[in-house]
Design a protein that fits this description.
168 residues; rod-shaped; mainly alpha; 2 helices
């Protein structure tokens, strides 16, 4: 009683903010383990991607050297078609197949990284949606107030003290 509507709204807003903050904090605690797991998976997937890239680069370099040696041996060697030259050419062809395999491994590792990033983005979007829902539920500014005047009944009025004082 006696509180202005402005003061009442301010008090409600403060209470609503405190409630919203508590609910958002509980929501953060709910999502934190899931996010930590996904971030760890992302870290491991990025490490695997880097490893695959290094292996692919190494395999490409090795294959280029082998092919170059085969061509050099065939052109400047004693015999153009010899057992050694054929062996080197066969080895170079096998290494080209390994390059394709390493490229495919790198592509798969990249897809894994992107899939995990997508999962993290979806989890963050779900968190934001729930946070917005909490904020909209606890917004006192959207509340409509109705002023109700309660008039006392004659049976509820009681006189407790009647006093007379004289001042000179």
């Amino acid at each position: 009683p006696g509180e202005s509507e402005r003061d009442f709204r301010i008090r409600l807003q403060q209470a609503a903010r405190e409630e919203r903050d508590a609910q958002v904090e509980a929501l953060r605690k709910k999502y934190a383990p899931k996010l930590a797991v996904l971030e760890e998976r992302l870290r491991r997937a990025q490490q695997a991607l880097e490893k695959e890239k290094q292996q692919a680069q190494s395999q490409t370099l090795e294959s280029a050297v082998s092919i170059g040696a085969s061509i050099f041996g065939a052109l400047f060697g004693r015999k153009t078609i010899s057992q050694a030259n054929l062996g080197r050419a066969t080895s170079a062809i096998k290494q080209a197949g390994r390059i394709r395999k390493e490229s495919a491994d790198t592509a798969r590792a990249g897809e894994t990284v992107e899939a995990i990033r997508q999962q993290i983005a979806e989890l963050n979007a779900a968190f934001e949606a729930e946070t917005e829902a909490i904020a909209s539920r606890t917004d006192p500014a959207t509340e409509e107030f109705e002023t109700v005047v309660i008039k006392p009944k004659m049976s509820h009025i009681e006189v407790r003290l009647v006093a007379l004082t004289w001042v000179e």
